[in-house]
Specification:
The chain folds into 3 domains: about 230 residues, no CATH class; about 150 residues, 3-Layer(aba) Sandwich (Protein Transport Mog1p, Chain A), CATH 3.40.1000.10; about 55 residues, Membrane-bound Lytic Murein Transglycosylase D, Chain A, CATH 3.10.350. It is built from 18 helices and 17 strands. The protein has a 7-stranded antiparallel sheet. It has a 4-stranded antiparallel sheet with strand order 5-6-7-15. A hairpin with a 2-residue loop joins strand 9 and strand 10. Helix 5 crosses helix 10 and helix 10 packs antiparallel against helix 12. The radius of gyration is 23 Å and the shape is globular. One of its GO terms (molecular function) is metallopeptidase activity.
Length: about 475
């Protein structure tokens, strides 16, 4: 679910004023878009780990509706959902459904920043950006034809082919925008939040928080196997954009005034999961471990993992893979053929070049290596499947350049193992703890309590938007990430 990148001159953006005039006539959203959004909603929620239907979800919905009241669209047309996802993301669909992940909320430090993100996404809907991009969206729609999808794998390095394939069933119709539309959504979001009573400075501080997270991620990426934050990578995020948002916020004449509701916002973050939910498995360095499924595997050095609700995506310079499960009748060959059918849609010819059975750490396994011709060259498609028991199978589906077969993924497919009950019980989630600073507390002393083995001080500073020379004041509230208990 990605929004495309685009270009716009700084002059064009800065010259556009942030209107704070009286609210325009209220209108309803097109019925077709509303119906599509309603149909897609269950698939979105499932793909992103479920929705928060408790007080936190209600809080986000209330902030979203407060901001959306100034969008010119009937506020009842919008629905704001908080998703249980470790991906830092916010997005909207044309029918008025706006989504934000708990991971992105964890980066925020007050309600004004939340209002800006929800206002930005609301702006895309209200400005009918979907209609302007609909033809491009259709051209870029995810399909089941292997050759079409794998063109990006051969042409420009390993892309998001398998992750896209995982979405072929839901066909999630999220908005894809031009750079001009993204900046327009910034402008609209600033307008909405300001008219709703929030300090428009929350726009630039939110974008700066994303910039900090991205920069820190670049430093630790090889260690914790995370990809660039989704909202950062799919929106034009740069120092220039932060500066432009700052100028637009100042242009409202209300910069530095208005609501922040910091304490109320931080109270909503208390106990929120950070990074992975153990119920969906957890990424620790180069290892993925799932306490409920009682399994673990390790990816090669330099490869990155992205954990989803029903699959783990892996990518690096030598290929891309996905780990998941499927229907299993006890026949691994039938299981593998089913996976190949899903991958190709039955419309691309795959020539089998290797087919064998083996045992991995005591687990019966079989694999197939196939070869397919695409417009950009030959691609190897491999499926390595494991019979965990008579009713359960798991597999790695891998894409590599022609002739490489399983290639650099050999260590990964041979690393899958069962974990013990004791090992599973020891796995705990990371959660946000809102802490009130006491006398004698320092950045270093509090950073030492962060539930990470590396970059503790840097993570603490980034999470709280503090400079490197920050001095903490008794009574000040800060966020810590600590180990919590499974729910």
């Amino acid at each position: 679910m990605r929004k495309t990148l685009f270009f716009l001159s700084a002059a064009a953006v800065v010259s556009a004023p942030v209107a704070l005039s009286a609210q325009t006539a209220v209108r309803n959203l097109p019925a077709r878009y509303v119906q599509e959004a309603q149909q897609q909603h269950p698939a979105v929620v499932q793909e992103f780990g479920g929705a928060d239907t408790g007080p936190r979800g209600a809080y986000v919905d209330s902030v979203g509706r407060r901001v959306a009241a100034y969008s010119g669209v009937n506020p009842g047309s919008y629905r704001f959902t908080t998703l249980n996802s470790a991906v830092e993301n916010a997005f909207a669909v044309p029918g008025g459904y706006v989504y934000i992940t708990r991971q992105l909320m964890g980066l925020m430090n007050d309600e004004a920043e939340l209002a800006f993100v929800l206002g930005h996404e609301t702006g895309h809907v209200a400005a009918n950006h979907a209609q302007a991009r609909e033809s491009a969206s259709q051209r870029n729609a995810i399909g089941g034809i292997l050759g079409a999808i794998l063109g990006s794998v051969i042409g420009g390095g390993i892309g998001n082919a398998i992750g896209q394939l995982a979405q072929t069933g839901s066909q999630l119709n999220t908005l894809k925008f031009s750079r001009a539309q993204e900046y327009d959504a910034d402008r609209l979001g600033i307008s909405y939040m300001t008219r709703a009573g929030y300090d428009p400075a929350g726009s630039s501080t939110m974008l700066a928080a994303l910039g900090r997270a991205t920069a820190l991620e670049a430093r630790v990426q090889g260690r914790d196997s995370r990809s660039t934050p989704e909202w950062a990578s799919t929106h034009p995020l740069s120092e220039n954009r932060v500066s432009q948002a700052n100028q637009m916020a100042r242009g409202t004449g209300r910069y530095g005034t208005g609501l922040h509701n910091r304490d109320q916002f931080l109270a909503q973050l208390e106990g929120v999961y950070v990074d992975d939910d153990p119920a969906q498995g957890m990424i620790e360095g180069r290892t993925f471990v799932h306490p409920d499924l009682r399994l673990a595997f390790t990816v090669p050095t330099g490869y990155l993992m992205q954990n989803g609700s029903d699959a783990v995506s892996i990518e690096g310079s030598g290929g891309q893979a996905q780990f998941k499960t499927g229907r299993f009748s006890g026949n691994l060959q039938a299981y593998i053929q089913q996976r190949l059918q899903e991958l190709t849609g039955g419309r691309t010819q795959v020539q089998i070049v290797d087919n064998n059975r083996t045992t991995v750490n005591g687990i019966p396994a079989e694999y197939v290596v196939g070869r397919a011709q695409t417009s950009n060259g030959i691609v190897d498609v491999s499926v390595f499947a494991y019979a965990f028991d008579q009713n359960t199978a798991y597999d790695f589906t891998m894409l590599t350049r022609g002739g490489q077969g399983i290639g650099q993924f050999a260590s990964m497919v041979n690393s899958l193992r069962r974990i013990s009950a004791q090992e599973a019980a020891a796995i705990r989630p990371r959660v946000i703890d809102v802490y009130t600073v006491r006398g004698g507390d320092t950045v270093q002393s509090l950073a030492g309590r962060m539930a990470y083995s590396n970059f503790q001080a840097e993570r603490f500073l980034s999470l709280n938007g503090l400079p490197a020379n920050a001095r903490l004041v008794p009574g000040q509230k800060v966020k810590l990430v600590v180990f919590g208990q499974r729910r």
